Amino acid sequence: MPDVVSLIFLLVLIGVLVMLACGATIFAAETAPLGRHGRMRSGHLVAGAWVAAAGLTLMALMAWSTHEDVHYDDFGSEITLLAAIVGATTFVLGLGPFVPWLLGVLGRGGVRLPAALRLSARHLADRRARTAPAVAATMIATAFAVAVATVAAAGTAQSRAQYLPQARPGTLVVRLDPARPAPGIAAVRQELPGTDVAQGLTPVHPFGLTVSTAGSATSFRDYIGDQALLRYLTGDPSFPYDEGRAVAVTSEPGRHDTVTIEYRAPEDPPGEPRISRTVPATFVAPAAAGVEAVFLPARLVLGMGVKLELEALIVDPSLHRVTAADRDRVQERLGESGQAYLEEGFVPSYNWLLFPGAAAPAALAGALAATARSRRPDRLLLRVGGSPAAARGLTACRAALAAACGAVPGAAAGCVAGLLLAWPFTTSVDWDPVPRVPFETPWSSIALATVALPVLAAAVALLLRPGRRP
Questions:
Q1: Which of 138, 194, 236, 293 is deepest in the core (most CB within 10 A)?
Q2: What is d(CA 400, CA 370) in angstroms, rounded to the nearest whole number?
Q3: Any idea what the Cα angle at residue 402 is, between residues 103 and 452, rounded to 5°?
């Protein structure tokens, strides 16, 4: 996806989330009764249920439309993804009226709760027009964080399945500028002195070279070099090297006893036949994934009149172990004259943590805002003695209950949205898509975050300075 399109998509996503937060809090405030004993209008709950059902239906439709493991058009997949996000937004928006309803249920029916929780529930229910929007903000932030974590787990599992290594694990590949290979060679020699380095060669006009094995129509990537390069590809120092024989390093079934090499120079006339040569080949399984190719001895290719140039320097991991620090030093010395790549396997990205990291303070702020006391004397403090310790304890209990009222339904809504959004988020735009793989929903992390938010809210409330003693 181009960078401009990604930026536009991110801005649209942020705009949708801001609209969600504003809409849900306004929805909760407009539908909240004034007092604890006020009843929620059934029309408000029905309207919220219809809105949530519409969003859930839209998400389900987008998930169903992207459940096949096929190629999806770039523009079509983006539209589907935006529609799914709009569905998730509508789903959470419809839950807004249920926040004051929940606070009212706890305030009226919490007679069997412990004294501190009962008083806290009544405090939240007495001022639902003020507390409901703040609790709704906590619910929205929690739902957003949980949905992002679920989608990230699905995306990471799919990216791991689609990952194709470029070399054997632990291999350092230094790709050079063929027109100026000297700086790259000097950088490797200075940073990795005494290390045996295999050289990968390429035709001056690489698009004119085609390599295929007998019985297979597949065109393999070709490696052209000497015995050191063959030793790296096979992982076997004792594998025989013959300058007149190719080596098919592949796990693909078929006949690999001969290799056909075809070449056309760009200066050849259009009607000129391609230079073709069939040479004997030896089959060997690759030492690791990512190195399947056909090895061609450099002298064999030069004998066909093909001009070669240095393309890459390869450090065999079986001869020298290269660290990430070594790669960074080589890259620093290379500058713009080459690129150093160290094959480290699939490394998951944790950039998605920025979104839950931004949602966590918002959820905490909503819980604390719901417990903010007005300027009027708080009669509940009189019932607990009015001591500073009791005031802090009651304030912490209120904050914990407000956070729980937002975090629990928010986590449930986020799980539903995340599991449905995982389908459009893992669509493939490749012509040969990798089938979707199962992923582990981070239930333990979701449960831990849901429990940690009330505890954190209570801890912050304990540190706050209690109001003046009535």
A1: 138
A2: 10
A3: 140
- Calpha distance 49→54 (Å, rounded): 9
Distance CA 40, CA 100 (A): 8
- The answer to whether residues 457 and 137 touch, using CB atoms and an 8 Å cutoff, is no
| pLDDT at residue number 151 | 93
For 352, which DSSP code? G
Helices and strands (H and E) in the chain: how many: 14, 10
Written as one string, the DSSP assignment of 137-198 is HHHHHHHHHHHHHHHHHHHHHHHHHH---SSSTT-EEEEE-TT--HHHHHHHHHHSTT--EE
Domain residues of the chain, as ranges?
3-163+349-463, 172-342
Q: Which of 315, 330, 336 is nearest to 186 (CA)?
A: 330
Q: Among all chains, which residue has been given the structure tokens 């003695």?
A: 385
Question: What's the CA gap between 15 and 25, in Å, rounded?
Answer: 16
Contact 434, 162 (CB under 8 A): yes
With 0-12 / 13-18 / 19 or more C-beta atoms within 10 angstroms meaning exposed / middle / buried, residue 437 is: middle
DSSP-based three-state secondary structure for 115: helix
pLDDT digits (tens, 9 = 90+) for 62-104: 999 988 888 777 777 778 888 898 898 889 888 888 888 888 8
SS3 category, 316: coil
Left, alpha or beta for 268 (phi > 0: left; psi -120 to 50: alpha)? beta
From CA 445, how far away is CA 353, in angstroms rounded? 13
Is 158 within 8 Å of 437 (Cβ atoms)?
A: yes
As a whole number of angstroms, the distance between CA 311 and CA 176 comes to 6
* Long-range contacts at 233-240 (CB < 8 A, ≥ 24 apart): 233/286, 233/287, 233/291, 233/293, 233/295, 234/284, 234/286, 234/287, 235/168, 235/287, 235/288, 235/318, 236/284, 236/287, 239/284, 240/282
Of 113 and 322, the one with more pLDDT = 322
CA 292 distance to own-chain centroid? 28
Query: Binning pLDDT at 50, 70 and 90, where does residue 374 land?
Result: very low
Q: How far apart are CA 317 and CA 231, in angstroms?
A: 11
Residues sharing a CB contact under 8 Å with residue 459, sequence separation 6 or more, in sequence order: 396
